[in-house]
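User: Sorry, folds how?
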Amino acid sequence: MCMNVLDLYKDIKVKDGDFLVFACSYGPDSMALFKTLLEYRKSHDVVLVCAHVNHDKRRESAKEKEDLEEFCKKNNVIFEYMKINGYGDDNFHNEARNIRYQFFDDVVKKYNAKYLFTAHHGDDLMETILMRIARGSTLRGYSGFKKLVKMDGYYIYRPFIGLTKDELLDYCHKNKIPYAIDKSNFSSVYTRNRYRKEVLPFLKSEDKDIHKKYLKFSNVLSDADDFIEEEAGKAINRVVKDNKLYIDRYLEINKFLKRIILEKFISSFYQDDLMLINDKHLDLIESLINSKKSNAKVNLPNDVEVVKSYNTLSIRRNPTLLSSYEIEISKDVMLPNGHKLELLDSVKGNSNNIIKLSSKEVTLPLIVRTRKLGDVMAIKGGGHKKIKDIFIDSKISTSDRDLWPIVVDSRGHIVFVPGLKKSKFDKTNNEFYDIILRYE
């Protein structure tokens, strides 16, 4: 294969001195990625950072780590490494993926990089599309994955999406690039491997360029999904308010948009794990909406439940499985009760959902937690009030009180009971404040 490296990276925008982070397992795909980035560095003043994860599932992993680290030193590439010491989830692949991508996210942000490069290729895209068609998915899910994906402050970039596994192996052999083979990739225990061994060879025998057809299919679905997302965004503003879906309004909209709205409604609880949700789960929610019962609920993966109460639908963590939480507020926080706390630069209005604070008077970081016995807040206007009495005055049910957010500073001073009451620390527009919190 004759690979034009500059063509592979023509869509990225870098400047001199930028750090480029790439995920590398020491397999042939990621080592081909390593080599192309070394070639790219010859014409661009960039710093390469190799991010490697040892899943600790094979005896060979330690040796592969050593070989990769040595290869990095030889080529003046920064080596970042983590070893996964244990797994708690029954779904090994899902848990490993989550841990891996959290590590990659940390490395990208450590170096303030603009891109995370991965070695996903055309065969991977075909396998993903086929698997999702077989199990059922969303329109976005059926499209597989994109070449460029916007993340929180950076992009994931997949330069090999138009190439095949064989082309990458050929590139490695011609350039004498070292790599190791993970023998578990040949095991038929894993679903993806069965597609890789049995389905893809048949498709390629029918058309050697079949991967290009799948890439076109992926792009068409992705573009269609972008358009539908725009329309769904308009519809969801009519249907969802204050994190509640209003059933009467939902029933009036287009049938296709209904599914999209349900996906968007639950996406904040799953984010990049939305693949855990399939047609069966959406059908359960539809049945809940159409049920004649005024009060009912359905359970979703990861201890999430969707609750129907008369004309509204809400989503939350199962309160019987989560009795308390404590979260540092360093960015927007999705809360277990289905609401969220947002850090804003500016805001209009002055309801009990918004508080303005001065960092000169509260001790950072701010923390959101569940109530504790004896909680008391110095309220705006003077005096003190028990949090228990605030709940009673606001007619908050006992079950809702257990997960209701309480915002405190690092000294333990209660500064905000979101949606209900503000503390003495709340500032008016005419006073100095540099922190704005909004509860939604």
Summary: The longest helix spans residues 210-239. The radius of gyration is 25 Å. The chain is about 40% helix and 20% strand.
